[in-house]
Write a sequence for this structure.
């Protein structure tokens, strides 16, 4: 039934009625190689994951990798204009858990982001990006170990919805005309030459994201959830996010206002510890995480803020070369690095595969394969401590030996044997 996808002779991961996963010992896992450096890092990720699974389970468990296509490789397999084949979407839904390399999005004209399209079409409304420090990683800040945050970035709404019209297009003219004539808008400074973008942010979208962030704080014994927004300026979108987030903390988790609010607090039902729900305006937040990172823990924010914050925080702990991520719906999960295709390094076996490998580590944990996930973390720590690292770390680490992308994977695998 698939045209170009070769389905391995192995078992599917399925979702139980209570939304838990049934993971067989030989699960089929779809992967998208990715554009640019995707072709460098994806094979390394697969090799490291296979080694960790083999070591952890002694052959009892094994992943059956299944290549599916998106981006430039899809145009080579399916035809010049097919960037995101229908059967890729079908496989991502059918096989439930998957991993992808980065995909190119041109600036200005050209195709819209395939990454955003995948998230929207699969309703992967949570972009989960944990940011933690690995001992020994070179960092531009004095105390990078104080950064231990988990970003819940809303993935389905906001300005990312892609509802926009180019300046001077019929669409832009129509919308501007409507705003001026029917809505009495007088504040578009240059109406004849303005591009127009729409920023939808809903109560339902906010609630499902904030609910997941608070539940994560409960399950992982975290101290606080910070709602990050620019609600002083964008009152009904970003401000709505803040207000709906607080309201949900109170109505669903029993949070009580602290000193009259708006901050509020409730007891973690699993541990009895306080969890504080607070908020921060995005610009101030960006300086706070640099100056006082220990005060922040779980972060819930909108799509664009989350995009900026995830790269900024990653920089504090060594850069996007080791910043992992996951895109989650209530059933489907697609794991991917935080960084992009880094085209200038494509095909050079040069970049850090750490971000993609740690995304796979999150995937193994999601599947309940904790022993293999733990092995990946420990071998990453040991590889960094051995100072055999890719260029991004080597250039900032005195006494380091620079290794290639695949070389770093081999160092990790060698550490698993020790
Ligand atoms: N989820 C996705 O698929 C994403 C896709 N993109 C797309 O990727 C393309 C390129 O975007 P761009 O803005 O250049 O961002 P990139 O994340 O691709 O690269 C920016 C810089 O980050 C560093 N970097 C990136 N990846 C690695 C790595 N694996 N190891 C070490 N350092 C790394 C490099 O820094 P240095 O030069 O200092 O070495 C690189 O020049 C665009 O088309 C964009 O749309 C962007 C983000 C996410
Ligand atoms: O889709 C893109 O090209 C960029 C996406 C991005 O920056 C991200 O997911 O963090
Ligand atoms: Mg980004």
């Amino acid at each position: 039934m698939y045209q170009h996808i070769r389905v391995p002779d192995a078992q599917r991961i399925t979702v139980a009625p209570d939304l838990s996963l049934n993971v067989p010992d030989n699960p089929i896992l779809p992967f998208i190689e990715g554009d640019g450096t995707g072709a460098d890092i994806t094979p390394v990720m697969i090799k490291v994951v296979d080694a960790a699974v083999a070591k952890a389970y002694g052959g009892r468990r094994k992943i059956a990798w299944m290549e599916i296509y998106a981006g430039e490789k899809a145009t080579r397999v399916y035809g010049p204009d097919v960037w995101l084949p229908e059967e890729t979407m079908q496989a991502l839904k059918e096989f439930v858990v998957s991993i992808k390399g980065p995909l190119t999005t041109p600036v200005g004209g050209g195709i819209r982001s395939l990454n955003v399209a995948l998230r929207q079409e699969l309703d992967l409304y949570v972009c989960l990006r944990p940011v933690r420090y690995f001992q020994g990683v070179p960092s531009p800040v004095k105390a990078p170990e104080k950064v231990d945050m988990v970003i819940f970035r809303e993935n389905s709404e906001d300005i990312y919805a892609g509802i926009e019209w180019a300046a001077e297009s019929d669409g832009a003219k129509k919308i501007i005309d409507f705003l001026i004539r029917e809505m009495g808008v007088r504040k578009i400074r240059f109406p004849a030459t303005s591009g127009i973008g729409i920023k939808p942010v809903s109560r339902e979208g906010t609630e499902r994201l904030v609910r997941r962030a608070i539940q994560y704080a409960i399950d992982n014994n975290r101290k606080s959830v910070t709602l990050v927004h620019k609600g002083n300026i964008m009152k009904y979108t970003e401000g709505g996010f803040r207000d709906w987030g607080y309201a949900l903390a109170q109505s669903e988790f029993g949070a009580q206002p602290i000193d009259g609010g708006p901050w509020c607090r409730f007891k973690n039902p699993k541990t009895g510890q306080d969890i504080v729900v607070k908020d921060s305006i995005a610009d101030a937040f960006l300086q706070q995480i640099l100056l006082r990172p220990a005060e922040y823990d779980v972060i819930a924010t909108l799509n664009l803020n989350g995009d900026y914050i995830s790269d900024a925080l990653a920089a504090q702990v060594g850069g996007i070369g080791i910043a992992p991520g996951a895109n989650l719906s209530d059933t489907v999960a697609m794991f991917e690095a935080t960084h992009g295709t880094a085209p200038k390094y494509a095909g050079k076996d040069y970049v850090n595969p750490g971000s993609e490998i740690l995304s796979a580590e999150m995937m193994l944990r999601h599947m309940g394969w904790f022993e293999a996930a733990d092995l990946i973390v420990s071998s990453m720590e040991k590889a960094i401590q051995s100072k055999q690292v890719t260029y991004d770390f080597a250039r900032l680490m005195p006494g380091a030996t620079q290794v290639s992308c695949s070389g770093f994977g081999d160092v990790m695998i060698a550490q698993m044997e020790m």
